[in-house]
Amino acid sequence: MPQLIPSHSSQPSSMTGDYPSTTKRAAGMINHVLTEVHATYFLDKIMVLISQEGRLAQWIHVPLEGSSSSISEQPLPSMTSHDSLLPMPHLTPRTLLGGSTAERETTGQLYATQIASAIAMRNPQENRMVLLGLGLSKVEANREVFYDTMDLVLSCL
Fold first, then answer.
1. Where is this region: Disordered (predicted)?
2. CA atoms within 13 A on the CB side of 49
């Protein structure tokens, strides 16, 4: 589990005009690096930012709408603790900016798909685009780092 750092800005905030947004924030130490997560809910998109050391180097989007009507009409499978972190098969992440190496590209798309799956599982009617801004100081294939980062993200969703 990441060591959570209290944040006073986890209160919802609204923008003026016709487009109110709600923002949730969390911060924690993951693998001895301060990691900040911001989730902002716009009318047309859900933007999630994961930043370490002030970095933001990669942008990925994942449409939550099913790629076909047959997929969106299928009931969600019941998830056990063993398969609860498996991403939904119809989600297709696309890197918009960044992902300079294959490892960064793969890691970014993994996080984007997991986050989009978590949002879709919590609300099967959700159809906004998920936009992920990712700024990891190191890209490493470490299960514990991945789970700790996802725990921090899930605390904002």
1. 1-22
2. 16
Q: What's the CA gap between 56 and 136, in Å, rounded?
A: 8
Question: d(Cα 17, Cα 66) in Å, to the nearest integer?
Answer: 31
* Domains within the chain, CATH numbers bracketed: 21-68+87-154 (3.30.230.90)
66: its two tokens: 């099913």
Are 57 and 98 a contacting pair, CB within 8 Å? yes
CA 125/CA 61 separation, integer angstroms: 18
**Which residues in the chain land under pLDDT 70?**
1-19, 66-89
* CA dist list (Å): 154 to 2, 18, 101, 119: 12, 27, 26, 9
Sequence-separated (6 or more) residues with CB below 8 Å from residue 16 = none
Tell me which residue of 139, 109, 115 sits closest to 128, measured CA to CA.
115
State residue 90's pLDDT score: 74
Which H/E stretch holds residue 40?
A: strand 33-41
Q: Which helix (H) or strand (E) is 110 found in, with range?
A: helix 102-122
What local confidence, expressed as pLDDT, does residue 20 receive? 72
pLDDT of residue 141: 81
pLDDT of res. 13: 38
